[in-house]
Amino acid sequence: MINEFISVSEADLIIAAKKLFDKYPSSRVFAFYGSMGAGKTTFIKVICHYLGATDIVQSPSFAIINEYQTNQGESLFHFDFYRIKKIEEAYAHLGSMTMMELLEVDEKADSDALRKSYYRLTKEFHPDRHFSSDDYSTKMKLTAIFDALTKAYNTLSDEQKRGAYIASLRSRKQEEGADAEARAAEQHREGIAEFKKGNYRAAIEKFTRATQLAPKNAVYLSYLSLAYSKVPEHGKEAEEALLAALKIEPFNAEFHSHLGLVYMKAGLKKKAHSSFQKALRIDPGNERAKKGLEQTR
What we know:
The protein is mainly alpha-helical. The chain is 67% helix and 3% strand.
């Protein structure tokens, strides 16, 4: 059930606060959603004062958690979960981000750009500025983010260290690429073995993994399409895999003729006919396309 209350003054907010607690007298946790500047903190100030808060109520955007005392000796806690979420996300990706990504700059950023970005981010994630409670976990994450930012700044600010770091990144990417290609080839071979046994669903899993490891390999995509075409109700996936292969190799006559067969199986004669025509324009001697063209006249 949705209740609407329109406020045009702070006096209206006092009424709204009273209505809120009249409706939910035993509730102890409330969530407020709204864009920046929508008035969340303004309303929360009114609520806190309504509940007897004696402290100054302000946004916890920098502190994350604000604690206020009431005139009855009770504590009110004001959380900024958007900030908590941002800290969690930054901490979770520390190990996967490059130093440039961490500082939100590119490889060619000059010293001025580096300094500005570093100061902005360390101000945002500084443990002392952002955390006023004793939550060890959050403070530990903020410290880790702050230390990573400082290390990135010190490395990228030194031309020699920056050059060595970027070179190591490129070398690592090359090694990872070679390893991915090898694993993709192995998955493809295993997929062919499953396909020959008639285990088409198992083949789909293997071919899918191969295409994930080597997304620009059109042959892997064509085999994935072939495996999908053998499983009922997977014609759409067979089509999508071949279309992806054709984006990589648009002048591959075999891919066009295979796509024609997929369309024929789905009863789409016009599309099938067009695909066979494209195959023959590329390779006039393609027997599969010739036969398909006759069948779709």
